[in-house]
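Input (Orotate phosphoribosyltransferase):
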Amino acid sequence: MTSMELARRIHNTAQLSGEFVLRSGRTSTEYFDKYRFEADPVLLDAVAAAMVPLGRS
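Output:
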């Protein structure tokens, strides 16, 4: 999976639209819920696999 495909899958899974009150008290019409992709084991595995090379310097 390319990084663009991975980004698209994360976006499709975790991006929510609506009216949200953030912790700061501000409101937003979009929200990124990381728990939604963390709950998808296949997607979480792809995220972890994409991160492995980032730890190698």
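The chain has a mean pLDDT of 93.
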